[in-house]
Amino acid sequence: MVENRNDVSSFLSYCLQNNFPFFAYQLPETGRIQIGVQTDLDLKDYQVLSELDAVNGFVFSPFDSESRHKSWLIRSDISLQASEIKSNSIPLLEAYQLKKEEELPKEVMLESASTLYFNQVTEMIKDLKNGKLNKVILSRVQILEGMGLNDAVESFLKLSEAYHSAFVFLVAIPNVGTWIGASPETLLSSKNSEVETVALAGTQKLSDRLMSQVKWEDKDVKEQAFVSSYIEEVLAQHNVRDYKRTGPVSSQAGNVVHLKTTYLLSGKMSFPQLSSLVQDLHPTPAVCGLPKIKALELIREVEQHDREYYAGYLGPIESNGSISLFVNLRSMKVLENQMALFVGGGITADSLPDKEWEETCLKAQTLLNVIRS
């Protein structure tokens, strides 16, 4: 638990209430919250990650790069670890008076009804059985009424205390959105000469079992194999053949377990090389499907909500070329008086609508158990 929790809460709340673009995150297994604040509203959007070479900050990119949603960089003009924040830290921010943007109409999101979800699964299974594609991801929205912006900071701090093995984040960009989450999935990380990416698929409840007692159904194993094969194809396209593969193994994320394969790439890669790899990995089959283009088309056709930044990617980048990018999963968009929780699951030709619905409920509970505690 953050020792100076009240001071950190006050600092982040001040950022949120005073229109600062900012980010706060906790990398997996570190227990340290890092905070970055941009001191003006001159936000930079980008088309491809390589545009941000030698830059410090935090990137926030949508699921669908061809949608109306842009990819953003938040600069870290003020950079602090949570442990450095004291009761007198807010004056650091008071020197900057950010002009309030013209207020947009209050946004309201609608929940995905179970009947609609069942119909969408059935519709997708037809294409899967016709052999048009191997796998597609269907997402839905669950609404928490009575919680909103005033609860965002507290919810983020609760998640940071509960999920040490996840990438826990709070991101706020004026007129774009405020998002919080605890992602179990690395897209691509690079530090020194070590580059890592993972294939993550399959979900089940851990309950009171030991990890060694977890067994997987054929559907989950196949689903995970699709993601692993895709990553290996992308690595081959980039002439990356020297890597260590570990897994698939069961990996715990809160109250659920996933199948996970980790890839450790040998040798230092330049920022343009890393950027190109990110471009081809995203969106992975774990959030989109296979073949990627057909899956993306089917998602655009079937899903009735806008994913926005859900299943996009986000994370810190450094001027020395280090990056830590994660898939925006187990996350919610925070509105004034609502929280819109996005959850999804992999649909294959063998999928059963009831089971798919249960899996999304299970994933939703990962966040809800903590936020409502």
From TrEMBL:
Family the UniProt entry places it in: Belongs to the isochorismate synthase family.
Catalysed conversion reaction: chorismate = isochorismate
Residue intervals of the Chorismate-utilising enzyme C-terminal domain: 117-363
EC number: 5.4.4.2
Matching PANTHER family: ISOCHORISMATE SYNTHASE ENTC (PTHR42839)
Sections of the chain in a coiled coil: none
InterPro entries in the cross-refs: ADC_synthase (IPR005801), Chorismate_C (IPR015890), IsoChor_synthase (IPR004561)
Lineage: superkingdom: Bacteria
Signal peptide segment: none
Membrane-traversing stretches: none
GO molecular function, one term: isochorismate synthase activity
Protein name: isochorismate synthase
Keyword vocabulary terms for this entry: Isomerase
A Pfam family that the UniProt record links to this protein: Chorismate_bind
